[in-house]
Design goal:
four-stranded mixed sheet; 10 helices; 39% helix; Glutaredoxin; 3 domains; 26% strand; alpha+beta; five-stranded mixed sheet; Immunoglobulin-like
């Protein structure tokens, strides 16, 4: 009788969620009947970017998963939302598509912690957000949500606070020194602090979409721009077109390189061909985990770094208008 009861319980548990070794995202949005959005993993748990189809407001996505991982959903308005996955777990999303900031994600402790933090942040000013994230990290140093919160709200904001991010990642490492990705981020933040204090960019070397090696030494204009973009982000493509106009106007006095966070080179190449962009472009398919993006400290789409002929950083993360004004003020 005991064996029968145990077997029945096992069957019930398996039927009610994702299978062991699998992770599932499911949910329903109000005010959305048909559509699609995208999902990718920031830490390599899934290859590239997958499409999630919405039918009658409902959607589902399932993938193999052997370890806890962070997935990111990209919505049609280009906003993003992290979902924390665990083997055998199901994350359930609910909300109104007209107000994605208020969506709720349940199913694991990390998702529920992150939902609570987001709801709190929605009501805070920028300085208060940093304080709220610090408090959250100190209370939950072992949570995957803590690491994501530091990346999302302290590193990926308009003006990154590398010092505070370094302090908080160091605190998390004390609680869990076996997290290699966290250790790598902490090391990177230390380098970025030093680079920004010295006004110089970190050196980089990568292969562009034409198979050619590109590095900082090749950027020898009076003004040099590295731009971060994506084929699925309209604002970043608009910035590329703005930069293209500046390049046409100033020629050799201005050097440009772009980096795409697309999962597939074919997508970024199609966008580049459409807009006739002919400067070096990097798209290694590793998205936000690309080493060149990490080494340069780029953290937003669109994003950019501007440096002079000596390699000194002039500005970073300018709007398209600010970028044009800064370039023209130097080259006029």
């Amino acid at each position: 009788m005991r064996f029968t009861g145990f077997l029945l319980l096992t069957l019930i548990l398996v039927s009610c969620g994702a299978e062991s070794g699998r992770f599932r995202i499911e949910g329903r949005f109000r005010n959305l009947n048909q559509g699609e959005f995208y999902v990718y993993s920031r830490d390599g748990a899934a290859d590239g970017m997958d499409t999630i189809k919405v039918a009658d407001g409902r959607f589902a996505y399932e993938t193999d998963l052997e370890r806890p991982a962070t997935f990111v959903i990209v919505f049609p308005n280009f906003s993003e939302q992290a979902v924390f996955g665990e083997p055998g777990a199901t994350a359930t999303i609910s909300g109104d598509v007209s107000n994605l900031k208020e969506m709720e994600i349940e199913g694991t402790a990390d998702n529920e912690l992150m939902t609570d933090l987001r709801m709190r942040i929605n009501k805070l000013s920028p300085p208060e957000i940093t304080a709220a994230v610090e408090e959250f990290v100190r209370e939950n140093p072992l949570s995957s949500a803590a690491m994501y919160a530091v990346e999302r709200y302290i590193i990926m904001k308009g003006t990154p606070d590398y010092g505070k991010a370094y302090e908080l990642t160091a605190l998390m490492i004390k609680a869990n020194n076996a997290n290699r990705r966290l250790a790598a981020l902490n090391k990177q933040l230390k380098s970025l602090q030093a680079a920004r204090k010295g006004g110089r960019p970190v050196d980089f070397r990568a292969t562009d979409t034409d198979g050619k090696i590109v590095d900082r030494a090749m950027m020898d204009g009076k003004v040099n721009i590295v731009c971060l973009w994506a084929s699925w982000n309209y604002d970043s493509q608009a910035m590329l077109r703005r930069i293209k106009g500046l390049k046409k106007k100033y020629g050799a006095d201005m050097s440009v390189m772009s980096i795409s966070v697309d999962a597939w080179a074919a997508d970024c190449n199609a966008a580049l061909e459409r807009d006739s962009v002919d400067w070096p472009n990097i798209c290694d398919g590793r998205m936000w985990d690309s080493p060149v993006i990490s080494s340069l400290g780029l953290s937003t789409v669109p994003g950019n770094i501007v440096f002079d002929a000596k390699g000194k950083v002039i500005a970073s993360n300018l709007t398209a208008r600010e970028l044009e004004e800064k370039t023209e003020s130097i080259l006029k």
